[in-house]
Design brief:
With 143 residues, this protein is mainly alpha-helical. The chain has 6 helices and 2 strands, in the order H-E-H-H-H-H-H-E. The chain has a single domain (34-141), classed as Four Helix Bundle (Hemerythrin (Met), subunit A), CATH 1.20.120. Helix 2 packs antiparallel against helix 3 (64-74), helix 3 (64-74) runs antiparallel to helix 5 and helix 5 (94-115) runs antiparallel to helix 6.
């Protein structure tokens, strides 16, 4: 009985410590945004992922022009206005702003590459977009 209790309590202590350690070790910088802006940003983010998914489907069908259009309109420099990027940028630290700009530029570069109708260089340019997603996610969180 005592042994069992000991095992259970050891387990729960290590579980507790496990989550505490993980939270402490989160190396991402917390960027505090007003609630409305958080919602707005997360909804943009979900659309970013949908856009990447649609781009991959178009690429798989060999429709590189369509992939280019999706990238430019939803992720590229043309999308800045619709994302309210100018408004949100004021709340972001410099590095995060730069990561956002890098992502939009990579998407516009991809659009140009895809229009050349060469799949492999287009895939490489697509990976530059997702690398920009990864790099910002690595450095920042908003909650
Ligand atoms: C400028 C920084 C930045 C860039 C660039 C960026 N994200 Fe995000 N994204 C974030 C932050 C910050 C969060 C919130 C993370 C947190 O607080 O846990 C997030 C969250 C998300 C979420 C979760 C949304 C939800 O509702 O839970 C998805 C999906 C996502 N991003 C996709 C993408 C994709 C795909 C790209 C690239 C095309 C991308 N993001 C580019 C900063 C960025």
């Amino acid at each position: 009985m005592l042994r069992k209790l000991l095992i259970i309590s050891t387990c729960s202590i290590s579980l507790l410590m496990g989550s505490a350690v993980r939270a402490d070790e989160d190396p991402r910088l917390l960027v505090e945004l007003p609630e409305m802006m958080q919602q707005h940003m997360m909804s943009n983010m979900r659309d970013h992922l949908v856009a990447i998914n649609e781009i991959l489907h178009a690429m798989a069908k060999g429709e590189l022009d369509k992939a280019a259009d999706i990238a430019e309109a939803r992720l590229g420099m043309s999308s800045l206005e619709s994302h309210g990027a100018g408004h949100m940028a004021r709340f972001m630290p410099e590095g995060m702003r730069r990561a956002g700009t890098d992502m939009h530029k990579a998407a516009s570069r991809f659009a140009l590459k895809a229009q050349e109708d060469e799949p492999l260089p287009a895939y490489e340019a697509l990976a530059d977009i997702t690398s920009a997603c990864v790099s910002c996610h690595f450095g920042y969180r908003i909650r």
